[in-house]
Amino acid sequence: MTTAPTADVEAVVRLRHRQVVDRLDELRLVRKLAASMSQTEIAKVLAISQPAVHKALKAAERVPDVAEGFSGASPYEIAERYAAGQIDRPRVIDELARWPYARTPKTDGFDWLVKDAPGTFEEVGRALDDGLLDDDTYDAVLTRKSGR
Predict the structure, then answer these.
(1) 3-state secondary structure of 81
(2) Which superkingdom, per the lineage (predicted)?
(3) How far apart are CA 114 and CA 63, in angstroms?
(4) Cβ–Cβ contacts within 10 Å for residue 86, how many?
(5) On the chain, which terminus has fewer CB atoms closer than 10 Å, C or N?
């Protein structure tokens, strides 16, 4: 079995993350266009069918806006933009340390399974688990967040 060069693997991983965040950006912009253009006009400009525009707008309804002062709508999206190479390490650390995290839901004492709530610090842990952040970056976020 042949092993691919590390640079090639890293490039493919970066490109896959770019696809995800580019799609989020595309949906947000199509939603913005729909405020001033008809679906038919958007379809003509994008050289796609009107039903494809309608489908994109339906998908865009589920995409939250980017948070003011941040590069993403969630901590996970910010980490994904970092993995895609759209933001640098100092910026991802700054944004993840400043994010206004929601409280993590508590167990009721009977059910130990607590669903991950959006906007909690658990998203940063998931980003680490999913390889969007490395251990050093995660630790830097924790240090900065705790004010040390």
Answers:
(1) helix
(2) Bacteria
(3) 24
(4) 19
(5) N
Give this prediction's pTM. Answer: 0.86
Burial of 17 (0-12, 13-18, 19+ CB in 10 A): buried
Q: How far is CA 65 from CA 13, 17, 76, 88, in A?
A: 25, 18, 14, 21
Helix (H) or strand (E) holding 34: none
Count the Cβ atoms, other than its own, within 10 Å of residue 128: 17
Percent of the residues in the chain that have a pLDDT greater than 70, as a whole number? 89
Number of other residues whose CB lies within 10 A of the CB of residue 57: 16
9: tokens are 């693997």
Closest CA to 104 of 77, 122, 87, 79: 122
- CA dist 147 to 16, 94, 125, 132, 139, Å? 34, 12, 19, 23, 12
121 pLDDT more than 60: yes
Average of per-residue pLDDT across 27-44 = 96
Domain range annotation of the chain: 6-60, 86-146
> Are the C-beta atoms of 99 and 78 separated by less than 8 Å?
yes
